[in-house]
Structure formats: C-alpha cells, structure tokens
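re: ur question from earlier - yeah i can do the single chain one, its not a big deal. heres the input i used so u can compare w yours
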Amino acid sequence: MIVTWLAGKPKNEIYKLQKTIDDTNKTLESFKQNEKVHLEKAAIKLEEAKEHSRKNDKNGVLHCLKIKMMHEGAAQYIRDSQLTLHEELILMERVKKEVIEALQDKDFTTQKTTHVFIYFCFLLLVLTSFVGL
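and the output i got, formated as tokens:
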C-alpha cells in the first residue's frame, strides 16, 4: 500500500489512446463498406447505360454515366479519406508506443526511488537499534 502510494497510480493515457485507435479502425471499416457500396452502384449504372445504349436512348446513357461518375468520385473521395486515417493511425500508434516507453521509464525510476527509500528506512532502523544499545 505504501509502495503504491509512493510509486503513484498508473495513468489512463494508454487506454484513451487505445480507445481512439479502436474508434479510428471502426471508422476505416465503415469507409471500406461505403466505398464498396459506391463501386457496386457505379457498376450497376454502367450496366444500365449499356442497356440504354442497346435501345439507342442517348439521354438514358448520359444520365446513367453521369451517376456512375458521381459514384466513382464518391468512392475516390472515400479512398483519399482512408489514406488520411491510415496516416493518423500510424501517428497514434507511434504516440502510444512513446507513452508506454515513458511510463516504463517512469516506473523504473519510481522503482529505484522506492528501493532507495526502503534502504534508507532500513538504514535508519539499523542505526536506531545500534544507538539504543
């Protein structure tokens, strides 16, 4: 109990960082699903454009191709956002690693301080027993 009091309680920085990393990973998964949906819709619109082309419906072809390009643009935007999120994930992992290393260094220093304190108390105890003789 005294050692815990001297050493201090562990911080929650790691848990907060890990929660942020998990949330970012969930966001990436939803982005991947949205990208897949947009690419599927673009493929459907391309098939519709082919059907309109067989019927010689130029307006239908142009309309389907415009919507196809819109879906492809949305998929590209999502891909770009995913790249940004991946970069942020890399930075967060690096920060998490640095925090862990800093906490380990702090724990090592605290352990050394605690050991010095324990040895000092032991020395005082030994000195008081000799003085009492």
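The CA atoms of residues 26 and 69 lie 27 Å apart. not sure if urs matches, ping me
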